[in-house]
Amino acid sequence: MHSRHKAWLVLAVITGLGLLALVLQGERGEAGESETQLSGVFSTVPYHAPPREMTLCGARVPLDDPQVRERFDREFTIVVYGHAQVYLWLKRAERYFPWIEDQLQKEGLPQDLKFLAVAESDLLHRAVSPAGAVGPWQFISGTGARYGLEQSRGVDQRYDFYKATGSAFSYLRDLYAMFDDWVLAMAAYNCGENRVRAELARQKAGDYYSLRLPLETERYIFRILAIKEVLTHPEKYGYSLPPGAGYTPLPQSETAVISLPHDMPLQVVAEVAGMNYRQFKGMNPSFISTVVPEGTHEVRLHRGRGKSFVETIDSIKEDFKPFKIEHLVASGETLSGIAARYGVRLRDVRSWNNLQGDRIVAGQTLVIHKIPHS
User: Given 30, 107, 120, 333, which residue is catalytic?
Assistant: First the structure.
């Protein structure tokens, strides 16, 4: 290449590199300026130290033990920074805690037991766990039945806030009588009294904090402690629920007992109670189907409606006597399709016709029981 051309080429490269350096410097300046501006918008996440002393049901928590403190710190950190969940707890607590606290006081039980319900269900009466525990106090089927919660066709009282609370208190009282220790009683509520009793004997341990238990139970008491701390001192951790922001308190209510010779559509019962379907299910969540099944039931109503409700139900209940339909199975029909056609449950169709499975054949006659107006 000609020497003059080489010189021009070198000069062009040098000029280009210089321009590139200026551009990059400008970009860095803009980025630095942006970072400076952003630093004024985004503040550092505040650090909330866990308390150094706590009690649970009157018993001191050994937070001076480094392992115990670390286990508590994990649950405290998760809870204290769960902003949306804490605000929901605070709102629901305004609805449920006054009644729970009153019942705890009447029964002479520790007030800290109310935080167990938060840990179990987030104060949601329709909560269902993967293991099949149900309701605000998360009863499994067997324990619920043992403590008087009916579970039958169309009814599951584990969902009933009032009844489940009474059963939970009875269970916890029995657990305390067994262990003479509220912390162990609460642990046993989570994983079962037999497991706790067996581990105490096997490990020769004398308290919850030195026991090795299933992971969920090892975290359980510390989660309750964290919930207690944050809900008891919300302002200390940056939570401020304005007056009136909580959910409305439980309505003033009364119960009435009705006896039904036949199933009655739940919508009809709701109308007699002066509520719509959703409102009635909200006050009576133990009715888990679209009918109030035959039998004797306690129904929760707005205060002052009990007498007229019972009188009206008694006057109309015979209007809902089921009538029988005979259905001739056509080619291609399925048992589930027939049940859906008549608005009845598949398992009822099986029961009415003594069927073990869902196999039917064309020309077969099925009996269907229908409730009027359903």
Answer: 120
